Amino acid sequence: MRQARCLAAAGAREVLAVVNSETAAAIARAPLILPDSLKLVVRDTANSMETLFEIGSRMPAGWFLATTVDAVLPIAELAGFAVLAQERIARVAQRGPGAVLGVVRWRGDERPLFVDVSRTGVIEQVGAETGEMVTAGIYFFSTRIFSYQARARQERLGALRQFLAGLLRWGVSLEAIEVQNVIDIDEAADLKAAERMLQRFETGR
């Protein structure tokens, strides 16, 4: 629900959230009032790549802002990323990037997706064994990436990170924008850190 509010604050007219049936049942049992902009799509997808494809099947042609549910960042940070991503797209229109990825300096996350980024902000590699920059869980995607859906399945890719690496391998340009304040929720301690960060940036405490 917080991610939906953040996306709406960043300018999204509608927010689609793909949740599995177990999560949908938990939402139905809880005394929650969903944001008006939020539309739940209940699908037991096989992996994160298929979740993205489910979104793609419902998305009109163009660009859309996406985030994983476990990437927690201040609303202003997400909105700023959306603005910078659109500016980047306008500058590199001739190259036609398929996506702009939010990246952050690695801080010891357990399952990082390392990316190599050039000085001009072009992503040169996805999925290196080590590095300084990792994906931040926020994306500005072109719906053109879904033209590679059949190829991804043919190659038996099974995760969003594999699909991103595949796009680069297939010649799709990917751009990067560094964000400063984002926490990937992997364990209970990360929740506490995220709460402290949001108190600092969104309540001034």
Give me the number of helical elements: 7
Distance between the first and last residues' Cα: 22 Å
CATH homologous superfamily grouping of the domain at 61-203: Spore Coat Polysaccharide Biosynthesis Protein SpsA, Chain A
Query: What's the CATH architecture of the domain at 61-203?
Result: Alpha-Beta Complex
Mean pLDDT: 91
Concise description?
By secondary structure, this protein is α+β, with helices and mostly antiparallel strands.
How would you describe what is shown here?
This protein has 205 residues and is an alpha+beta fold. The chain has a domain at 61-203: Spore Coat Polysaccharide Biosynthesis Protein SpsA, Chain A (Alpha-Beta Complex), CATH 3.90.550. It is 37% helix and 25% strand. It has seven helices and ten strands. The strands form three sheets. Strands 3, 5, 6, 7, 8 and 9 form a six-stranded mixed beta sheet that branches. It has a two-stranded parallel ribbon with strand order 1-2. Strands 4-10 form a two-stranded antiparallel ribbon. The longest helix is centred in the middle third of the chain and has 17 residues, at 75-91.
